[in-house]
Amino acid sequence: MEIKHIQDHLMSVEEGYVRCFLIEGETGALVIDGGVETGLRKFMEKQTSQKLTFLLTHSDPDHTAACGEFEEILLHPAEMARLARKQKIQNRFAAIQEGDLLDFEPYHFEVVLIPGHTPGSIALWEKEKRFLISGDSVTNATTFLFGEGRSLPAYLCSLRKLAAIAGQLNVIYGSHGPVEVPPTRINELIALCERVERGEIHGVPAERFAGDIQEYRHQGAAIYYPALTQE
Ligand SMILES: [Zn+2]
Predict the structure, then answer these.
(1) Is 80 exceeded by the pLDDT of residue 22?
(2) CA of 231 to the centre of ligand 1 (A)
(3) How far is the CA of 28 from the centre of ligand 1 (A)?
(4) 64 C-alpha vs ligand 1 centroid, how far in Å?
(5) 101-127, pLDDT tens digit by residue?
(6) Any idea where the domains of the chain sit in the sequence?
(7) What is the Cα–Cα distance from 162 to 158, expressed in whole angstroms?
(8) How far apart are the CA of 230 and the centre of ligand 1, in A?
(9) What CATH number does domain 2-226 carry, 3.40.50.1000, 3.90.600.10, 3.30.457.10, 3.60.15.10?
């Protein structure tokens, strides 16, 4: 794990291909996601003496390795059943919902529900400081949109919801790839997903997956999605 300064009181914890975030507020600290490595809690406690609040953007396995280290896990209810199947920690779950406000002075986040990548994916919107923490939904990497629980139509709806606030963002911080994502990525992803839905774009077989999963690209946007069947 490697800590990197992003802006005042906001740090990322780099774990190779995935990252977590730490917001050190004046009276408490927020840990966003549990990564692929255990020991995250101890690592965070070395960075800050503030009481830690732990939150998941979603419950994919590359974001949940350290969940068992925290007494309480904030996540959207639509993520709970799946995580409970993998880790017997459901008695620690606490629900976060669309519109919830999380205050970690000087940061104030609003929870934005953005299903698609997973059913209960959320983003954290800092309106005043004009940034969004997007989980896997808007990144510089390739977003997974195949398999159980993922939905391209739901993802498109969520991207359109984010597009409505893109003009109020200076930057997006994603979980994979280089951390700073331009807000224009939202519209690039919309254009990509619309083309995939209409069957207008060809993907390239993704070597990392067996079977028919392809990588579709448009400008800076990329998704993994099943091969489109020929008419
Ligand atoms: Zn991920």
Answers:
(1) yes
(2) 33
(3) 26
(4) 10
(5) 999 999 999 999 999 999 999 999 999
(6) 2-226
(7) 6
(8) 30
(9) 3.60.15.10
